[in-house]
Amino acid sequence: MAHHKYRSRAEWQALIDRQSQSGLGVIEFCKQHGLVPKYFYRKRSQLRDGKALVPAGGSFVRVSPESSLEPATDVNLVLQYRECQVQLPLATDPAWLSQLLRSL
Question: Does the pLDDT at position 39 exceed 80?
Fold first, then answer.
């Protein structure tokens, strides 16, 4: 399976701007830059609609401590997005957590 490079919102916007100024069609531009046209179209649409690039965002979700009478002893970090909740120990490896968030 091919590994996709993570690009920020600004990087995608720059690619989309370059394509529109290049005079090339999307397919030819994608071919020259090693991009998948279907993915390019999706990102362009998301930027135009003002949607997050990663659902899964691409952006971070505000995290706040859960208030309770009894503090959790084995869980120090709670990530919540809509109805989903992930509880992690404070000692969670940041590189692993970063990879998890990118894959969502």
Answer: yes
